[in-house]
Write a sequence for this structure.
């Protein structure tokens, strides 16, 4: 094996190790947020749940803000991206994609670690302007920018008439949060069954299309 080939393989091995360790830490952070409820877990707590030393944790994330940013990035890569990648060739396709997206957004928003981190951030209230934007997208369940770009493509194909796609994106995401998500966030008992989620997703889709169809 040549030295260059050896170095390339070594780099690939290190990269895989880094990816695995970061994933392990993020998984532990999610568990810690669920356990701490309305309080932001300490780095020691996160390290314990991730089964790494505190020193190792700081090698990968120098602060809770760094960790939060990676959690936000992970959320934006959920199956919501796959939903909006589906081909839309008719108004029926559009209706199906919107309702499927609404279900994904609702399910993501009521996941235990999602609720935990939202409550912790609200309680702490210490965020930079950039993090506030990330929290907004995270809290809504998807990226406003990504959804607005998708809506512009739909408008270009003349399936919808929207003047302000960014506003429309925020409206759709807000519709997805009605009742189930908001009640879950504030620990108000509500029906989170599959039937209830499907009903709310259908309502979000119907209301949105009434406005812009």
């Amino acid at each position: 094996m040549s030295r260059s080939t050896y170095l390339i393989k070594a780099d690939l091995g290190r990269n895989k190790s880094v990816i695995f360790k970061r994933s392990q830490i993020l998984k532990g952070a999610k568990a810690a947020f669920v356990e701490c409820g309305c309080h932001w877990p300490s780095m020691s707590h996160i390290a314990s749940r991730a089964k790494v030393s505190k020193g190792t944790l700081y090698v990968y994330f120098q602060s809770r803000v760094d960790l939060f940013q990676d959690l936000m990035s992970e959320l934006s890569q959920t199956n919501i991206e796959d939903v909006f990648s589906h081909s839309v060739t008719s108004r029926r396709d559009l209706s199906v994609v919107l309702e499927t997206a609404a279900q994904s957004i609702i399910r993501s928003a009521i996941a235990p670690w999602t609720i935990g981190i939202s409550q912790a951030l609200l309680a702490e209230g210490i965020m930079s302007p950039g993090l506030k934007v990330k929290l907004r997208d995270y809290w809504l369940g998807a990226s406003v920018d990504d959804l607005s770009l998708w809506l512009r493509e739909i408008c270009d194909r003349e399936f919808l008439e929207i003047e302000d796609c960014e506003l429309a994106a925020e409206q759709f995401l807000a519709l997805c949060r009605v009742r189930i998500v908001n009640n879950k966030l504030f620990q108000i008992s509500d029906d989170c069954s599959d039937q209830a989620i499907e009903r709310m997703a259908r309502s979000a889709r119907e209301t949105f299309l009434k406005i812009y169809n």
Q: What stands out?
A: The chain has two domains: 3-62, 72-212. Residues 33 and 195 are 28 Å apart (CA to CA).
